[in-house]
Amino acid sequence: MIRRKPPAPIFFLLFVFFLAADLPAADDRAVELARKEGRVSFYTSMAAEESKLLADAFQSKYPFLRVEISRLSSEKLLQRIITEQRTGSNLFDVVTNSGMEVYLLAKMGLLARYVSPEAQAFFADSRDPAGRWVDMYSNLRVIALNTRSVTKEKIPQRYEDLLNPAWKGQIGFPEGQVAWYATMLRVMGEESGRKFFQGLARQDLQFRAAPVLIAQFVAAGEFNLGFVYENQVLRIKKRGAPIDVAPLPFVTKNMHPLALSAVAPHANAGKLFIDYVLSKEGQLFIKNLGRVISRADIPQEEFARIKLIPEDVAIADRIKQVTEDYKKYLQ
């Protein structure tokens, strides 16, 4: 039997195979480059305790890298980055902030295009088509209720139920919810949305600086209802407080995208950090902190029946106009 020579393409594939076997894996090269940098500067609006836990988890996997955390509120963090850019400081490698602030950073050219190998595992509406960010976690804007003062028959089932005169003076509302306002108008429709906000404005809302304060007031019985974040309700509820979430037909999610600086001083370490945070391991860790995630291959049964709508970060392009409109109805 005559043995035929394999066709040329097979010889070529064999050559490539043996050549590749002698080369370090791409991941290994990335790790080595990050090792030389030694640290990653992480700017975040995430709670300080959670940020530290996440950094510790990353450092346990890559002990040769040190995570330096700078934690500020969303607006202050945005201003700090802009100031550093103007002075040429360029101190951060990776940032996570509220969606609108990250959108503005991208628009100003302060974020790099980095498509993590983990990005494709996320829902399409939770990653930037231009490859500059992916949602690290989201806060769900929900209506909290005090289970002692709000009977089952009175629990709001629709947003319009909040306009019942019985709730006047009994609803806590955080200041500056412009992105939520614009998203609600888009979802409800211009006419219905404005009618809703006109009615809400007549409810003598109890304004406070932050959602967490309102959640605490609802749990204490100071307010019957309150606009808060879902994770805050869960934490307080676990302590035995009489607080729960109203079963509304949809809720909006305030995304917190993760992105790489366009001039990152430790770009390789930054990419490694992003890859870890977006990985299944990293996202499970964040989920176990009580956060809502957008990675499609991790089940979140508790939200299976709830329609989650990302807030409209593009309103940053017309923020002045939208803010003025917002103030017609809300503080």
List the helices and strands and how they pair.
Blueprint: H1 8-21, H2 26-37, E1 39-44, H3 48-61, E2 66-71, H4 74-87, E3 94-96, H5 99-107, E4 134-146, E5 171-174, H6 178-188, H7 190-201, E6 206-208, H8 211-220, E7 225-229, H9 230-238, E8 243-245, E9 250-260, H10 267-278, H11 280-288, E10 307-310, H12 319-326
Parallel strand pairs: 1-2, 1-3, 5-6, 5-7, 9-10
Antiparallel strand pairs: 3-9, 4-7, 4-8, 4-9
Question: What is this structure, in a nutshell?
Answer:
By secondary structure, the chain is of the alpha/beta class. The chain has helices at residues 8-21, 26-37, 48-61, 74-87, 99-107, 178-188, 190-201, 211-220, 230-238, 267-278, 280-288, 319-326; strands spanning 39-44, 66-71, 94-96, 134-146, 171-174, 206-208, 225-229, 243-245, 250-260, 307-310. It is globular, with a radius of gyration of 24 Å.
Overview of this structure, please?
40% of the residues lie in helices and 18% in strands. Helix 6 (178-188) packs across helix 7 (190-201) and helix 8 runs parallel beside helix 9. Strands 1, 2, 3, 4, 5, 6, 7, 8, 9 and 10 form a 10-stranded mixed sheet that branches. The protein has 331 residues and is of the alpha/beta class. The model is unreliable at 1-26 (pLDDT under 50). It has helices at 8-21, 26-37, 48-61, 74-87, 99-107, 178-188, 190-201, 211-220, 230-238, 267-278, 280-288, 319-326, and strands at residues 39-44, 66-71, 94-96, 134-146, 171-174, 206-208, 225-229, 243-245, 250-260, 307-310.
